[in-house]
Amino acid sequence: MKHITELEMINVIDSPNQSMWHALQLIDPGDDAQTVEFIQFKKQFKSHLVELVRHVSIKIKKHTDEAIWIRIAWGDSYTRPNHMKPTYAVHHLQTPYVFVTTLTSKQKPLLSQALLLSTQYQTIKEANLSGRKLTAIRDLLMKQYQQMFPNSFPSLLTETKENVPDPHKVHEQAGTASTRGRLACETFGRGALPQIETTVYKLDTKYKDPTNQTMSERSRPFKCVVKFESKNLLESLRHCATSGIVSTPVAQLLSSIPKKGRNFFYVTDTDAASSSQRPASQV
Prior knowledge:
By secondary structure, the protein is α+β, with helices and mostly antiparallel strands. It contains 8 helices and 9 strands.
């Protein structure tokens, strides 16, 4: 079993995009949070989790990119650890983020408590960010992608004598396209973007439409879920803004994805025009 779990862990580290990852955020660091080292973290995490769970198998490795990979096979007071459905967690020391996969609601408080005690933080909460591409959600949350934007953006139109019947009109169109491109880049950047595949907006607002009085006059809030999907959602949104499919400046509901590093938003009636979220429940 020891060799099998070792091989499995190597496979998951090399190919992490086989399951859904969820981001957690550590809050309120203690005085020693920035000085925690790998050996100290490994020792304390194992000892704390073993105190909480009688039968548990824990394996911790430090990857070449300094990420700490944790594999947990859970058991309980009566059953041995189930190595068929392990939980994986990834944490970079001196950062307030942890990425987890295959974690049940029953196991979450146990993992959270062990993380808090071993990282010297006080609280942990959902970061409202998830996806299959671990590198993408990590880069988005930690802002590890190009965010330095130029002051000017080159014109997106190529002017030739054959397609310029009206120089003034084409100059105006080129200026509009250049402005759209600049505003799109100010929101999403110009380089490669993290490959986020979905974004979800959960609405709990009053329905507002002067042409539909039946819905507008309802006392109960209008509830619905809006989901965007793409192989690379941020790249798609940038293209839509650049090409004029969506208006610029980019609406706050869309620009909040890269700015706030999340892809789940809870929009309430008190702030329906912005990307307000319901505070994530603390663990």
